[in-house]
Amino acid sequence: MKNLIENTVEFVKEKLEGAEAGHDWFHIERVWKLSKKIAETEECNREVVELAALLHDIADPKFHNGDETIALKVSREFLESQNASEDVVEKVLFIIKNISFKNRGEVPKDLPIELKIVQDADRIDAIGAIGIGRTFNFGGFKNNLMYDPNIAPKLNMSKDEYKKSNGTTINHFYEKLLLLKDLMNTEKGKEIAEERHDFMMKFLDQFYKEWNVD
To answer: Could you tell me which residue ranges the HD domain spans (predicted)?
Structure first.
């Protein structure tokens, strides 16, 4: 297992060199560490958890014209080159396919614990201080407005609407980030998310005070 994990780390680092800062190697590393932390509190296949955490954003669809098949193809080819068992490959690909927030309405019920762990870790990295930084970084990357009081958040967007959305960065808090706390799967995930959610609420309070020059 050790060599496979080490080789995966090197592969991902090389593949994501120059990636947008919110979806780069450092994002992967944080999700990997969070996944291992949560996995300590659950009965699970640690190898599948670590591999899925490392490969989950190897080809994020938002940077590949919405194509959700590239990550699956790249991950399969890499894992097969490492002689990973077909069982492990299938489990890792299932997590990559079903982890995304935008796909939450399409996933099967009774999800494996390994997916729940990596999904919690990925969502935790989208909230709190890191989440705020990543959100503003991506908003700047897309040249979205930071905030406009006249543009309301779009709640309950369909998958296609969410993929095409170019709303303000502050609206993204209401369209996604503030929803994540209640979507956690594991007890450890819920515990970590609670603290980060509270931090975002305090940030928004301060943001509006400064925006309105109160």
So the answer is: 24-127
Q: Is 84 exposed, middle or buried (0-12, 13-18, 19+ CB in 10 A)?
A: buried
Structure tokens belonging to residue 46: 């640690």
In this structure, which amino acid lies at residue 110? Answer: D
Q: pLDDT (tens digit, 9 = 90+) per residue, 24-75?
A: 999 999 999 999 999 999 999 999 999 999 999 997 656 555 567 888 999 9
DSSP string across 24-47:
SHHHHHHHHHHHHHHHTTS---HH
How remote is the C-alpha of 129 from its chain's centroid?
A: 15
How far is residue 108's CA from residue 77's CA, in Å, rounded to a whole number? 25
How is residue 180 annotated by DSSP? G
Residue in 40, 54, 66, 125 with CA at minimum distance from that of residue 95:
54
Can you give the pTM of this predicted structure? 0.89
Give the H/E segment covering residue 191: helix 187-211
Token look-up 């997590």 returns 95
Looking from the CA of 197 toward its CB, the CA atoms found within 13 Å total: 17
